[in-house]
């Protein structure tokens, strides 16, 4: 799938983190609280994600992800977790700092580089 903006990736990741799937929905207010944004910002982002076929939300309803949206959100979350684990366990970076930096890195790293890094980390058995 084509890469999207960091912001939209954060929304998909947050929805997955809150338990959102193709069957389980999450509330806009919970997404707003998770990301520290306004409900209006969530609504604007949901409009864009719905247009891309990644999320579904009836008028003033809860948010569910499409298969494609769930897959994308899960992949962003997996990247984040792997990067944060590497930064804390392999490099000894404090957890709070590692979380912030993993969030930045998860959006910047290419799929190819991530796959190679992931293979390397699996060999380290972190």
Keywords:
single chain; 126 residues; mainly alpha; two-stranded antiparallel sheet; 6 helices
How many H/I helical runs? Answer: 6
* Relative helix content: 55-70%
Largest sheet: 2 strands, antiparallel
Rg calc? 15 Å
Uncertain runs: none
In the sheet with the most strands, the strands line up as 1-2
Oligomeric state of the chains present here: single chain
Describe what this molecule looks like in 3D:
The chain is mainly alpha-helical. 67% of the residues lie in helices and 3% in strands. The protein is built from 6 helices and 2 strands, in the order H-H-H-E-E-H-H-H. The protein has helices at 6-17, 28-35, 39-51, 67-90, 95-108, 111-124, and strands at 55-56, 64-65. A two-stranded antiparallel sheet has the order 1-2. Strand 1 and strand 2 form a beta hairpin.
Q: Secondary-structure blueprint of this entry?
A:
Blueprint: H1 6-17, H2 28-35, H3 39-51, E1 55-56, E2 64-65, H4 67-90, H5 95-108, H6 111-124
Antiparallel strand pairs: 1-2
Helix pairs in contact: 1-4, 2-3, 4-5
Question: What can be said about this structure in brief?
Answer:
With 126 residues, the chain is mostly helical. Helices cover 67% and strands 3% of the residues.
